[in-house]
Amino acid sequence: MLYSMTGFGKAVTELPDKKITVEIKSLNSKQVDMAARVPSQLREVELELRNRVATGLVRGKIDLTVSIENIGPDTNQVSLNTQMLESYKKQVEEVSDKLGIGVPTDWYQVLLRFPDVMKTETQTELSAEDVEAVFATLSSAIEAVKAHRRAEGEKLEAFFRLRLDRISALLADVPRHEGERVARIRARMEEGLQKLQGVDFDRSRLEQEMFFYIEKLDVNEEKQRLAQHISYFDETMREDDAQGKKLGFIAQEMGREINTLGSKSNHSEMQHLVVMMKDELEQIKEQVLNVM
User: Fold this and answer.
1) Cβ distance 5 to 290 under 8 Å?
2) Which of 148, 183, 209 is the last residue of a domain?
3) Sign of the alpha-carbon dihedral angle for 107, 113, 115, 118
4) Three-class secondary structure of residue 212 per DSSP
5) Helical axes 203-216 vs 175-194, angle rounded to 10°
6) Which domain, by its residues, includes 25?
7) pLDDT digit string (tens) for 224-281?
8) Is residue 59 within 8 Å of 29, Cβ to Cβ?
9) What's the alpha-carbon Rg for the chain, to the nearest Å?
10) 2, 6, 31, 73: which has the highest count of C-beta atoms within 10 A?
11) Is-contact 104 110, C-beta < 8 A?
12) What is the CB neighbour count within 10 angstroms for residue 109?
């Protein structure tokens, strides 16, 4: 079975006074390339968070976001900033005396409009239970990414099988042109010899050379190997530990056989089939990069 490197997972855990949210996004990459955004309360365990994600997801360009929202009634304590109020009141009185204008009759209404006169004290320390809840939420998000990757992998399997079936169908159409191809090659060679007036040649030797030449253009081995590679690609997709790199190597071998088939074809219809095979194979190669 195939797993795509593309996936998204989100998990949320609500505690009596906190809401923990973990989001993980993954795209294709040759190795683990991770960017993490975590609250300052989790700096001490950030490395462990990263390690667990890397172990669980193996490969990919990964974005990890962890957020902790305080939701309890006593988590945020608001108080007046007395020192700031005193400073603002003193400055207003000095300006009043300097400009000769009266002081405010309602000090609270004036002073509370100034910035930073209210202090919000937010609980920043996390208990051991809170940290464990973060790790549990992270595990759930990782499993969600894996499930998404598997769903995307099923789409890739269907995509690859469709392309493999098309290449197989094109390959099966090659023999239809082979007999005609040999006849055309022989006819061209004999036609060229007829144009050589007054040249004496050994007919049996000519037949032998023509046989060797046509034998070099034989594509049976290429057809057999390409068919084997197609079968091997399909078998590999069905394995429990199917790997994108392995599929990439098989696709490269398929490309070699298709290229050799094209170079030997010496026939317009066969070359047209080869071009269509290459088009299908290129689509396979592009998507193989997304496979785990």
Assistant:
1) yes
2) 148
3) positive
4) helix
5) 140
6) 7-72+127-148
7) 999 999 999 999 998 887 688 899 999 999 999 999 988 887 777 888 999 999 999 9
8) yes
9) 37
10) 2
11) yes
12) 9
> How many independent structural domains does the chain possess?
3
Contact 249, 286 (CB under 8 A): no
In terms of DSSP bridges, do strands 60-70 and 32-37 run parallel, antiparallel, or are they unpaired? parallel
Instruction: Retrieve residue 39's tokens.
Output: 């609250």
Kindly state the helix (H) or strand (E) to which residue 287 belongs, with its residue range: helix 268-288
Q: Is 239 inside any structural domain?
A: yes
Tokens 């493999």 belong to residue: 164
Q: What is the pLDDT of residues 160-207, one digit of tens each?
A: 999 999 999 999 998 887 767 666 666 666 666 666 666 665 666 666
Q: Longest C-alpha distance within the chain, in Å? A: 129
Cα separation of 107 and 104, whole Å?
Answer: 6
Instruction: Give the sign of the dihedral formed by CA 83, CA 88, CA 91, CA 93.
Output: negative
Indicate whether 1 belongs to any domain.
no
- The residue count of the chain comes to 292
Token digits for 74? 């006593």
200 C-beta neighbours (distance < 10 Å), count: 5
